[in-house]
Amino acid sequence: MSNTQTDEHGQVRDRRGEWRPEKPAGFMPLFDWPQKPLNILKWFFSVPGFFAPWYAIYVALTCFAYFVLTPELAQMETLSLDWVSLILLRNIALITVFTGGLHVWLYRVKGQGRKTKYNGNWMAKKDRRFLFQNQVYDNVFWSMVGTLVWSIYEIGLWWGYANGVLPYSANPVWFVLWMILMPFWRNFHFYWIHRLIHWPPLYKTVHYLHHKNVNVGPWSGMAMHPVEHILYFSCMLIHIVVPSHPLHMMFNGLTTALGPGVSHSGFDELVFGDEKSLRKEKLMHYLHHRYHTVNFGESAVPLDKWFGSFHDGSPEADAHFRARRSN
Ligand SMILES: [Zn+2]
Ligand SMILES: [Zn+2]
User: Which ligand does the CA of 291 lie closest to?
Assistant: First the structure.
């Protein structure tokens, strides 16, 4: 009996229905040694690259939320239900449109079938491990809890800006630099809190909830225990110490909330039309859900490489980690 099968798109899947891209997962070239400045420059400005498409989409959404759907600063000096609820409802709308949009396109409309889907199966139904016995409903529920936590951080920080108690900077050079540094800060922070919640006592009580999702979809990204949400969004507390513009704070919160929708989409590429694709390497985090003890971080800062927990999805890496586990 053959160990592989060819699916309806001509992709080879193993006996468990898993598909892997030819190109292994990897890190952004910024920390490569020796440094190749041309490669770094190309990575910043090519499509897909650092800025396009996802970074640019998050900046656009942040600007829209800031200029159209954020109350006046003076109004936020005192906590009151009207502006607090506006921020909460705006954030619910953002995640519903963005993550829900990805979900509808990929999993309801099945806009690209199983083309470049890592796992051969769709989301689980009638599965007692999930709330409402339905993986999608479970994931949406916990994502909404996460949206509440995100909004509480944002509301607290807005209150701080309105009362002049947070370090503020509108220096244009620092503004741009801090915007560019933000993904690196978020990656660095995520790696460490993620390692922390893999500590067995916290894994068993908190992080297990996220890992119920072995086969992931967009809504799985923010499907976490509330304690994990609190730790995960604590990256926003950096604005208590680093001089920022409120736009930095909003961009930080928005990418932390919406980014997981993309990184958990379950697909290697998003195919729009025939050959046009928005490629984002999500293999790295998919493998974390598959094997648990690899790839705690993301691709901007190669902490996994430095600490020996990096799995690139290749058969060689599989063999390496299997040998390590049996030792
Ligand atoms: Zn995850
Ligand atoms: Zn984990």
Answer: 2
Residue 135 Cα, ligand 1 centroid: separation in angstroms? 14
Q: Which ligand neighbours the alpha carbon of 207 most closely?
A: 2
How close is the Cα of 175 to the center of ligand 1, in Å?
Answer: 30
Is the pLDDT at 167 greater than 60, yes or no?
A: yes
201 Cβ neighbours under 8 A, 6+ residues apart: none
Host H or E run for residue 101: helix 81-103
Using the mean position of ligand 1's atoms as its centre, give its distance from the Cα of residue 210 in Å: 6
Element holding 148 (H helix, E strand)? helix 135-162
pTM: 0.93
Q: Which residues pair with 267 in a beta bridge?
A: 117
* pLDDT of residue 280 exceeding 70: no
- Inter-residue contact 232 to 193 (CB < 8 Å): yes
For residue 211, the CA-to-ligand 2 centroid distance in Å is 6
CA of 193 to the centre of ligand 2 (A): 10
* d(CA 161, ligand 1 centre) in Å: 32
With cut-offs at 50, 70 and 90, classify the pLDDT of residue 276.
low
Question: Ligand 2 center to residue 92 CA distance, Å?
Answer: 25
CA of residue 1 to ligand 2 center, whole Å? 34
Residue 121 has pLDDT above 60, yes or no: yes
| pLDDT grade for 39, boundaries at 50, 70 and 90 | confident
For the residues 163-185, what does the mean pLDDT come to?
A: 97
Strands (E), the chain: 4-6, 12-14, 269-272, 276-279
The CA 212 to ligand 1 mean position distance, Å, reads 10
- Judge contact between 89 and 83, C-beta under 8 A: no
Which amino acid is it at 74?
A
**Crossing angle (nearest 10°) for helices 135-162 and 81-103:** 140
255 CA distance to ligand 1 middle (Å):
15
- pLDDT tens digit string along 77-100? 999 999 999 999 999 999 999 999
